[in-house]
Amino acid sequence: MNHADVDLSALPEIPVRDNSPIFREPWEARAFAMAVKLNEAGVFEWREWVESLGAEIRNAQAKGDPDLGQTYYLHWLAALERIVTEKRITATEGLLARKDAWDRAAKATPHGEPIELGRDGSPVAPA
């Protein structure tokens, strides 16, 4: 399955052009691909994904997200994190440790250079 095989119309408010998702940043495309691959691997049904993403969007809107489109993939990522922890693919602690490692690496990276885990000198633990 590729993004052309995914029913994008079932997803709430996904930015699309010619039935293809629109990504503003590379991480958005990677988050999209992870959800598609996890679905292909049978980790969750697409209906579960749509429900999880919809819940994240509703929660964000209830907290004041103006829902102008710029935060869509932040909701996508939050839904992805929630579903992989609910399905016990990873633990919340592992996600938090990886986020912290990326944050440290970003802060240690000179402007214009690629961000790499471990750049700050700390060991890189497996995900």
Structural description of this entry:
The protein has 127 residues and is mostly helical. It has one domain (3-93). Helices cover 50% and strands 3% of the residues. It contains four helices and two strands. Strands 1-2 form a two-stranded antiparallel ribbon. Helix 1 (26-40) packs parallel to helix 3 (72-86). It is globular. The two termini are 25 Å apart. The model has no long low-confidence stretch (mean pLDDT 83).
Secondary structure blueprint with pairings:
Layout: E1 16-17, E2 20-21, H1 26-40, H2 46-62, H3 72-86, H4 92-107
Helix pairs in contact: 1-3, 2-3
Radius of gyration: 16 Å
Work out the strand percent: under 5%
Widest β-sheet, arrangement of strands = 1-2
Share of helical residues: 40-55%
What profile does the largest beta sheet have? 2 strands, antiparallel
Structural class: mainly alpha
**Domains, number:** 1
Q: Whole-number average pLDDT?
A: 83
Task: Report, as a whole number of angstroms, the end-to-end distance.
Answer: 25 Å
Number of helices: 4
How many E-type strands?
2
What gross morphology would you assign? Answer: globular
Low-confidence stretches: none
Q: What's the order of the H and E elements?
A: EEHHHH
